[in-house]
Amino acid sequence: MKAVVVERGASRPTLLDVPDPEPDAGEVLLRTLRVGIDGTDHEVVRGNHGGYPPGDDYQILGHEAVAVVEDANGTDLDAGQLVVPTVRRPAGESNRYFERSEPDMAPDGQYVERGIVGAHGYMSEFFTSHPDFLVPVPDSFAEHGFLVEPVSNSEKAFEHAFAARSAFEWDPESALVLGNGPLGLLTLAMLETESSPFERTYCLGRRDRPDPTVDVIERLGGTYVDSRETAVDSVADAYEPMDFVYEATGYAKHAFETVDALAPNGVGALLGIPNDWEFEVDGGRLHRELVLENKALFGSVNSNARQYEAAKDRLGAFPDWFFDAFVTDVYAPENVEGAFETGDDVIKTVVEFDAP
Ligand code: NDP
């Protein structure tokens, strides 16, 4: 079958003919429809993040997928059912995090991540999985169901943010998303759905207009903040103090500047994954600010099946125009190099194996 892989020592994706996967007992065979590409895939291809499956000289890429059950293989799923696979699997034997359905909270070493670290991903014509790691989705998700995975990451961050403010009456109104990449824009769209309590939203970037991401921000109802004019630690003065800040730039200074952007009693979620970078911060002032203003700051990675379920509902509430503006290109596996090209006119690219 066709698979998009990165070979050991290479730093670009290639199409390879690999053996068809055979489902073990209790596993399902899936036919891939579409696989989205995100910043993590770029990092995996560059060799900055993740790692090859043990003993293999290539890794099949991709962790944002939507697929069809091709062979239910005696499991409770039905052939033809549409599913979204989760990303983490136990490293070897199962462990308490997986048994509690909280693989997202497993520490490093207790999990592999399909398409990222230690396991093959979903960017191939077929893949296999245990049904416990498959989230059924309605047929209407064939085209954009691959977005359930990234949206679920933000559902987790929202859940943790609200939990961190659950000991008192928190009535948030303002939210700032740092980053106008795919994760930032998806999160802004989530904050703009009807069930969201936020009345005013902002999204930070560093692009000149006209720019497709700025268009999406404004069409969603958010205010575009240009970090070249307004640094994150000046946002509270220039706009307003934020009840919630969601960081999706991977720009390490933003982690600390978030404390200044927050309103008293506010909460900041850090999602970006930066490289090492040494710089000076006034740690005493930030520590004092967190304590005396009851602010909270936390990191969040990955998501669990409950958050995938929440993501399904949330995606269903997105306006139709958003998908057309957000998914800028769809590529055949044969043209995968194009899917990994970046540019100011590219927001989200997708590799399509089978028509939705
Ligand atoms: P991208 O790299 O595509 O997006 C980052 C965006 O932030 C870009 O649009 C970039 O602007 C903008 N940006 C970076 N620095 C600044 C700055 N100083 N001022 C203003 N804007 C800035 O990544 P994704 O959207 O895919 O993901 C965001 C981050 O989240 C990444 O670090 C990724 O690794 C991480 N991630 C974390 C997950 C988790 O579970 N924790 C899940 C998925 C991703 P420009 O394009 O103009 O350079």
TrEMBL record:
Entry binding sites for substrate: 40, 113, 149, 153, 302
- Taking every annotated instance into account, which residue ranges of this chain make up the domain Glucose dehydrogenase C-terminal? 142-353
Q: Which residues form the Alcohol dehydrogenase-like N-terminal domain?
A: 25-139
**Keyword rRNA-binding found:** no
Tell me the Gene3D superfamilies matching this sequence.
Medium-chain alcohol dehydrogenases, catalytic domain (3.90.180.10), NAD(P)-binding Rossmann-like Domain (3.40.50.720)
For this UniProt record, the keywords arranged alphabetically read as follows: Carbohydrate metabolism, Metal-binding, NAD, NADP, Nucleotide-binding, Oxidoreductase, Zinc
Indicate what this protein is called per its UniProt record: Glucose 1-dehydrogenase
Q: What species is this protein from?
A: Halogeometricum limi
Which gene is transcribed and translated to give this protein? gdh
